[in-house]
Amino acid sequence: MPVHTLNAELVPDRLAEFDTVIDARTEDEHALDHVPGAVNWPTLNNAERIAIGTMYKQVSPFEARKRGAAMSARNIAAHIEREVLDKPRDWKPLLYCWRGGHRSGALATILGAIGFHVTLIEGGYKAWRAALVNALPDVARSLSYRVVCGSTGSGKTRLLHALAAQGAQVLDLEALASHRSSVLGHIPGRPQPGQKRFDSLIWDALRAFDPARVVYVESESRKVGNLRVPESLMNMMRASPCIDLRLNDEERVALLLEDYDFFVKEPDAFCERLLALTELRGKATVSSWVAQVRSGHLPTVVLELLRQHYDPTYSQSIARNFNQFAQALPCELRDRSPQALTEAARALIDSETPTAAHT
User: Fold this and answer.
1) Among residues 97, 149, 271, 331, which one is catalytic?
2) Structural contact between residues 118 and 108, judged by C-beta atoms closer than 8 angstroms
3) Out of 13-27, 52-66, 273-287, 327-341, which region has the weakest mean confidence (pLDDT)?
4) How far apart are CA 35 and CA 231, in angstroms?
């Protein structure tokens, strides 16, 4: 059966037509970013691609192509034996590699010869990435947002989780970015994805939402850790109706000590992060905080951080960047308990109206 091609610009709207999306690039290339839902069937693995590239430059392109063909044939045979033997005749895979050339083409040719309806993305991942960048603004603008605002420790992320548990549509940018969006927000043992992967995760989340329903999102800045929120999404968030989440100081401190328990367990790591505030808060203040942490007075330091650093900074940023914050819907939590958050989530969902849902 002949191999078909699909313009990368059409992929976002037609992904659901295919049973399997196959990335024929190396494991490392796939890990950096890939079409949402794609499985990795490397035609050449990481080490093989390096070896063939070296041979191409140092020996000759002809010798490299011969050796590469042998490696590719073995790998493709293994993929077929492992993944394809149980596939029905009407199985429809979508394939791509870096530019839609040799690696995905070799796999597509063999699958087509078997009799499957095979489609290649024209231009491969490179073209797909360009198509995603073009598609992201439209999908971001097609949705209506309610922005959960609130000072640090007020439970914004917990409220998003409670909203999701109640069936609301939630975009959790911090979860997608593997970062808690502050100078102390790095999560130990969880590196952030690259920018391209972050963009893909956002696009994949947005396209799953129902445009007729509200999407709840936290009042992030333009960057979550080292990653940039796409400008089109940021602009929509900043122009959307807001929720002003409030929680008393004692509960905020307790909540932060729970959410950042790794700093409680590893005070040296907390002190290291505090040093990043030296330029903003001064050496004397930061040195005092570090000394208090080492003396076991962590709650005191957290409260001072909130009052002296986070609260003033957040208040100025919110008022400046979120156009509708002055008219924000108040949401007062009596405490940080799951029950209080569930009640707040239900009340917010009940308050949704067509007017509130559209900006």
Assistant:
1) 97
2) yes
3) 273-287
4) 21
